[in-house]
Amino acid sequence: MFQPGEVDPLRFCRNAQVWEAESSIAEFPRLAREFTQGQLFCRVAGDMDAQRRSRLRIVVRGEVVLTCQRCMGELPHTVDIDRTVYLARDEAQVERLDEALGLEGEAILAGERLNLVELVEDEVFLGLPLVPRHEPGECPESSS
User: Fold this and answer.
1) Domain boundaries, the chain
2) Percent of the chain with pLDDT over 70
3) Residue 106, pLDDT score
4) Residue 35: is it exposed, middle or buried by C-beta count within 10 angstroms (0-12/13-18/19+)?
5) What is the pLDDT of residues 24-40, one digit of tens each?
6) Engineered SS bond to 87: which of 35, 67, 104, 110, CB 3.0-4.6 Å?
7) Contacts of 76 (CB under 8 A, 6+ apart)
8) What is the rounded CA–CA span in Å between residue 124 and residue 132?
9) How far lies 126's CA from each of 11, 15, 60, 107, in Å?
10) What whole-number distance in Å separates Cα of residue 78 and Cα of residue 133?
11) Is-contact 27 120, C-beta < 8 A?
């Protein structure tokens, strides 16, 4: 698979490292269980903001195929994620960052290791519709 899988998240940001991958959905274990088809481009870039806060910019673009809950047929879905998350060392810092950032970002707890593939998978899952379905009248006709 593509490297690196796990990184030290604070060092990744401090060193302004970047991880990019373009791959089929099959390379993402949790996504592969949910989707039969798809292609994703992913980019995770670490850096420090002007206040020396660690942050990750996560960009994920591509297409996946969902199952329509109306007709149970294939439903193409465009993935277009571009967001920044700030890294906190403990829960108290998460709360302070969330308060300071307001709507401009979100803070997450930074562990000793961060799996970038899992981070991308989480972002894709968070961006999916709760109930995927074609618009009314757009379901393909049944062939039975």
Assistant:
1) 6-126
2) 94
3) 87
4) buried
5) 998 899 998 888 789 99
6) 110
7) 63, 64, 65, 66
8) 14
9) 26, 28, 12, 15
10) 13
11) no
Query: To which residue do tokens 């060092």 refer?
Result: 11
Q: Following CA atoms 127, 121, 100, 50 in sequence, which dihedral angle do they give, to the nearest 10 degrees?
A: -120
> C-alpha angle with apex 6: 46 to 125, nearest 5 degrees?
80
Phi, psi (rounded to 5 degrees) for 60: -135, 125
Helices assigned H by DSSP within the chain: 9-14, 29-34, 91-101, 116-126
28-71 pLDDT per residue, tens: 999 988 887 899 999 999 999 999 999 999 999 999 999 899 89
